[in-house]
Amino acid sequence: MIQRRQSDIDTDTGQVFNVKVRTFTNFDNDKGYLFKTKDQATRSFEEFKLSEYVKDNNDFMRCHLLAEQIYKDTNMIAVRLSTRRTRPMDLEDISRTIGLSYKSTKEFLSKMIKLHIMAERTDIVGDMISVKYYFNPLFFSSKKYINADLYFLFQESLDCHLPGWAKQRFHEVGNIKKDV
Q1: Is residue 110 one of the residues assigned to a domain?
Q2: Total structural domains in the chain?
Q3: Partners of 3 in the beta sheet?
Q4: By the number of CB atoms within 10 A of the CB, which of 7, 18, 30, 100 ranks highest?
């Protein structure tokens, strides 16, 4: 197998240069078998330990159960209806997943939101109200990049970890989105 990765693109002309080509095989004698190359993954990071913020073992376990439900590239907790369809998990779905009553689920989510582990976002489109729950990318992430939506959901906890130029760019992008 061959995987091609572009490293540099001239932003004025779009010309690609310094293309790096990397080859790999499905089985390497030293490394073993390349397992699940196309599956989506949720990452956690060594420098941001959830256990330092969530002291209750049951809540820690519940966070990990919900992290398994993060939808690719969004950090939103979702229900997979089929291979091509998902929807945001509602309180009943979350309650079923973590094994708590409806009231206890609301208390758990409230606690995670206060700790900046999770965030709740309400979207109103016409008559429809949709409540979505997201994980802070410091603790779990379904992609390599933090988009503007995630940044603004978790700005308070992310600002001390991001360089100034990145925060400035998020605010520029956020202002553009508000104007549209």
Answers
A1: yes
A2: 2
A3: 22
A4: 100
Range of 20's domain? 2-33
Q: Is residue 126 part of a domain?
A: yes
Query: 10 Å Cβ neighbour count for 116?
Result: 17
* Spacing of C-alpha 34 from chain mean position: 24
Residue 26 lies in a domain: yes
Q: Which residue's entry shows tokens 């061959």?
A: 2
Helix (H) or strand (E) run with residue 153 in it: helix 148-153
E-assigned strand segments in 10-165: 16-17, 20-23, 27-28, 32-33, 78-80, 86-88, 118-125, 128-135
67-105 pLDDT per residue, tens: 999 988 789 999 988 888 899 999 999 999 999 999 999
Q: Is residue 109 part of a domain?
A: yes
Q: Tokens at residue 156, please?
A: 């308070």
Is 27:35 a contact under the CB 8 Å cutoff?
Answer: no
What's the pTM? 0.75
- Exposure on the CB side of residue 78, measured as CA atoms within 13 A: 17
